[in-house]
């Protein structure tokens, strides 16, 4: 309506490609706007693979915008991040899923794997990402966890990622192995980090997508609320700063997000951990570690929003939150992301 439209602000996020973050202050929702036209090949793509094989890096490259956490630690993606890649004659909706977990230790792990499987329900094709640096292995487990009974019917592309880290001769051997011992439609070697081979993946996907009208406006690259990405930025910094189990025991929630016309954006974040000892580590001596974390997160949030931010971070203890199904659903692991 007129009131909502009058409260829309526009922020330039990147100069190339031309990207703008449109923030609806009334609902604290954001979308990234890419000015594109048309559309004919439209569909859903499930991106599967074991932890730390480069699923998030590939999804970010295809979308042209960082939407998913990328660190050198495995299992950093927890939510089924929906990214939308649109062009003049296509629209690909990418599900960047959590890595397939062999041993589920918490209720959180089980719910994340449920999200992986549900991503396949709407999929028109599947990308299975494997690490080219590792010994070739059977991908049946990844397909079984990811798409279940759909694995025999969905077009499947095996993406041999991190080709920049091995010699061309080794790439050829691994290509031959996967073509011989896996039941996939095609194998494409890529370097998601540098974008090499990404256009080949897009061409393959387009050949598998049905024709029809776009599911989303062509200027949208994500349907998640802005607060979701703010929380993900904080969580990424936790993974980068802390070691061992601490990052995996952390849940980040945006408690309050207030737009102030004549002042910095006010964002209040809580980090939930399971033990007092984890809280002590996060805060650090004299609060120094938490201050370092908050500063790093604030700078990235400001870069994302293109506005100055006042970020307030608090650490709370909720014992065994990863086993509490009610809390997990509240945090968005039931498949729905909570908007403020």
Automatic annotation (TrEMBL):
Locate the region G1: 49-56
Asked whether the UniProt record includes RNA-binding among its keywords, one would answer yes
A GO term, aspect molecular function: ribosomal small subunit binding
Q: What Gene Ontology cellular component terms go with this record?
A: chloroplast nucleoid
Locate the region G3. Answer: 96-99
Q: Which PROSITE patterns match?
A: G_ERA, KH_TYPE_2
CDD domains according to UniProt = Era, KH-II_Era
Region annotation (G4) ranges = 161-164
The subcellular location is: Plastid, Chloroplast stroma, Chloroplast nucleoid
Known function: Nuclear genome-encoded probable GTPase involved in ribosome biogenesis in chloroplasts. Plays a role in 16S rRNA maturation in plastids and may contribute to the assembly of the small (30S) ribosomal subunit.
* NCBIfam families reported in the protein's UniProt record: era, PRK00089.1, small_GTP
Kindly give the HAMAP family that the UniProt entry links to this protein: GTPase_Era (MF_00367)
Query: What is the protein's given name?
Result: Era-type G domain-containing protein
Gene source species:
Gossypium klotzschianum
């Amino acid at each position: 309506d007129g009131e909502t439209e009058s409260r829309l602000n526009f922020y330039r996020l990147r100069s190339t490609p031309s990207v703008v973050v449109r923030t609806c202050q009334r609902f604290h929702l954001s979308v990234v706007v890419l000015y594109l036209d048309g559309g004919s090949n439209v569909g859903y793509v499930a991106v599967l693979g074991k932890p730390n094989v480069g699923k998030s890096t590939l999804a970010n490259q295809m979308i042209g915008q960082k939407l998913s956490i990328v660190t050198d630690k495995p299992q950093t993606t927890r939510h089924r991040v929906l990214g939308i890649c649109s062009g003049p004659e296509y629209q690909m909706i990418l599900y960047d899923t959590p890595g397939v977990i062999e041993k589920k230790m918490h209720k959180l792990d089980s719910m994340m794997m449920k999200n992986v499987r549900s991503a396949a329900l709407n999929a028109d094709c599947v990308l299975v990402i494997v690490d080219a640096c590792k010994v070739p292995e059977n991908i049946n487990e990844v397909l079984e966890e990811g798409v279940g009974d759909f694995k025999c019917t969905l077009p499947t592309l095996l993406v041999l990622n991190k080709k920049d880290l091995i010699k061309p001769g080794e790439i050829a051997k691994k290509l031959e192995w996967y073509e011989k011992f896996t039941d996939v439609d095609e194998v494409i070697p890529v370097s998601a980090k540098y974008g090499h081979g990404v256009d080949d993946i897009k061409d393959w996907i387009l050949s598998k997508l049905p024709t029809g009208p776009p599911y989303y406006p062509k200027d949208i690259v994500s349907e998640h609320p802005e607060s979701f990405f703010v929380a993900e930025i904080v969580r990424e910094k936790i993974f980068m700063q802390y070691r061992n189990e601490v990052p995996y025991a952390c849940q980040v929630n945006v408690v309050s997000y207030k737009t102030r016309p004549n002042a910095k954006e006010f964002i209040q974040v809580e980090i939930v951990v399971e033990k007092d000892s984890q809280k002590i580590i996060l805060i650090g001596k004299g609060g120094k570690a938490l201050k370092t974390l908050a500063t790093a997160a604030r700078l990235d949030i400001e870069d994302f929003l293109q506005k100055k931010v006042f970020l307030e971070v608090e650490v709370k203890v909720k014992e065994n939150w990863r086993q509490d199904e009610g809390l997990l659903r509240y945090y968005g692991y039931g498949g729905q992301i909570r908007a403020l």
